[in-house]
Amino acid sequence: MPPRLKIVLFVAVLIFPSFCRSQNLLSNPESVVYDSLRQRYLVSNWGDGAIVQMTGTYEQSYFSTALQGQFQLAGLYIYGDTLLAAAGNAPNAGIAAFSLESSELLYFVVIPDIGLPNDIASDSAGNLFLTDYWGSRLFKIVNRVPSLYMDTGLDYPNGLMYDPRYHRLLVLSVAGPGAPILEVNLTDSTLSSLIPTYLATDGIAFDADFNLYVSDWNGDLVVKYDSSLANSSVFSSSHSDPADIYYDRIHGQLCVPNFSSHTVDFVPISPSGLPGDQAPDLPARFSLLSSHPNPFNASANIVFQLSQAAEISLAIYSPSGKLVSTLLNEWRLPGSHEVTFAAPNIASGIYFCHLRYDNISASRKLILLR
Predict the structure, then answer these.
(1) How would you classify residue 88: left for phi > 0, otherwise alpha for psi between -120 and 50, otherwise beta?
(2) pTM for the full model?
(3) pLDDT for 354-366, tens place per residue?
(4) Tally of domains in the chain
(5) Same domain assignment for residues 139 and 233
(6) Does residue 9 lie within any of the structural domains?
């Protein structure tokens, strides 16, 4: 990533910095995701091309070194039981796919003539999108086949996020007028500018209430916008070239990879998206809500609510009762939760989503149409 002039701004916000351990495996960390099934963070290294895993106590080990010394890794994205990594700065750049279970490199999608693959997102149908920073383009990947989706007006696109409320992508335009947040309408494939940020933007993330967070290299800070994008404020500061930020729903915190200090900061966020203890009312009861979309083509978003913290299991079954996929088997905090069920390798038909905690259970029908 290119160096930038820095304007230092200090704000008093509680930050839990990453760890001081005998050996730090992070090398210019670019992106962070949380693998909830295995209770670990996964971090991409721009510096050496490795992927590092960290436990809840932030102990480090390598998840994969398969691309070490070959590519520089940027955005990470969990897609079903697969970890996707944007791999660039080398011939045959594209997206690498790893098994979350075994860490094995499963396949590599080469994007012909791509400049720098940067950030990855998927829409409600399971279609993947990838920003090309140097090429100022947006690619779409369906069934591992890439195609050019948009190549005008993006102006060095960096951070990428899918907004399910409006079926749109939000893209950070680094070189556009005012470094705006752009909207890519996935219904009609149009591009528009939502608001200027006037920041040296890199990463973008939603919290549980759709407040938006944007990292700024120049100020070493993260800026928060409310869900309407009408109001903004500095959320956290004193980072070190913050890169592709990530909202960890399980622990209610923002994960900020510090590119230049080779660390990750974890900034607590209340459910209302505000520092402190202000929070909306919690759900009154346990419930499994309708999935969306339903019927679905490649992936469905499953939403459930918990009135109290609990050990829960969430799984998909066939009509005959055969287990198709275990999505969650973990401790979850009270509140609303959303999990994506990606179904790339199963046949069309009726399936059942089953949620259980303590002695309570609920089921919902899912319809997969290819």
Answers:
(1) beta
(2) 0.73
(3) 988 766 778 888 9
(4) 2
(5) yes
(6) no
